[in-house]
Amino acid sequence: MEWSLTHFWLILALALSLAELTSGVLLLLALGVAAALTALVASLGASFEWQLVAMGVLSGSPEDAVRDALSRDGLRGGMVASAGNS
Questions:
Q1: What 3 state SS string does the chain have?
Q2: Which of 38, 76, 79 is nearest to 56 (CA)?
């Protein structure tokens, strides 16, 4: 079996998704989904440059989702909020 960039993106997606399971950080799962979708772009025959563009575009929105969730719900544990009051 010959390895291709599609395999690389799928292995990256699997590794990020497994890391999310062990750490509970949803951002890793979102990046895993972005890597899986980038593998789809690679399987369609896109060049490596376009694969990097796809990964960048697809992984840009999870950052906004995390920022929105943190501003809405705050940090669990309140360590940042309590540090400012000391």
A1: CCCCHHHHHHHHHHHHHHHHHHHCCHHHHHHHHHHHHHHHHHHCCCCHHHHHHHHHHHHHHHHHHHHHHHHHHCCCCCHHHHHHHC
A2: 38
Mean pLDDT of 2-12: 90
Q: Which backbone phi and psi does 76 adopt, to 5 degrees? A: -70, 135
Q: How far apart are CA 37 and CA 25, in angstroms?
A: 19
**d(Cα 17, Cα 22) in Å, to the nearest integer?**
9
pLDDT in tens, 24-49: 888 888 889 999 999 999 999 999 99
**Is-above-0.70 flag for pTM?**
no
